[in-house]
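Action item from last meeting closed. Structure (211 res):
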């Protein structure tokens, strides 16, 4: 089976070097954070600003860590990913599910199911991100927040061409365009939350709220 799993697969911007099925690439657990400790702390501090106790959180494209601040007391945290071992190792998840968003972008939840959706350092791997964000808007309540964080790290063979060829500014603009094209989001903002520019991993967030 080809890895060209979404309607954007014919668009050169969304081409990947490795077009084998994602299940093959993500079959081996990677129990790592993908960004350095300083960037992890900066992301936790950002989440501390935007999330509230009793929030229902969807951690989309998660792994063995969700970067949530230790002081946060969410009502429920649902994790999504491609590797059960990674998700099982994540102590901040209450439940989790496996789904290939590049094949099936629709999420298995009713509308208004979550207060927040987080995507940490994984957005570069979606081949139909607009479809995913359209459904994220559906499952978030009115006023719910989506926060997409990213650095300059990636698995280059699985990242889309538009990401591999762009710099930090281009990445910010690209993710912003996803939210605008998906519709349903307002108050779209780009933030540079890099902890120590030039000394640690850069870190950026594009966020929006369901209108």
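Sequence:
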């Amino acid at each position: 089976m080809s890895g060209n799993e979404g309607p954007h697969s014919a668009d050169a911007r969304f081409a990947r070097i490795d077009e084998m099925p994602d299940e093959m690439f993500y079959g081996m657990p990677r129990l790592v954070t993908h960004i350095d400790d300083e960037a992890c702390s900066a992301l936790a501090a950002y989440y501390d600003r935007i999330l509230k106790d009793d929030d229902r959180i969807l951690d989309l494209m998660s792994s063995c860590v969700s970067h949530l601040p230790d002081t946060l007391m969410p009502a429920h945290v649902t994790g999504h990913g491609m590797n059960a071992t990674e998700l099982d190792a994540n102590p901040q998840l209450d439940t989790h599910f496996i789904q290939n968003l590049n094949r099936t972008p629709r999420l298995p939840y009713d509308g208004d199911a979550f207060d927040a959706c987080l995507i940490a350092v994984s957005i570069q791997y979606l081949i139909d991100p607009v479809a995913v964000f359209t459904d994220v808007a559906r499952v978030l309540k009115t006023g719910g927040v989506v926060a997409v964080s990213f650095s300059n790290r990636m698995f280059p063979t699985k990242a889309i061409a538009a990401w591999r060829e762009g710099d930090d500014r281009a990445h910010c603009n690209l993710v912003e365009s996803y939210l605008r094209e998906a519709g349903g989001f307002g108050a779209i903002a780009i933030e540079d939350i890099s902890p120590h520019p030039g000394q640690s991993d850069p870190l950026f967030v594009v966020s929006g709220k369901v209108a």
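Note appended to the action item: The longest helix spans residues 168-182.
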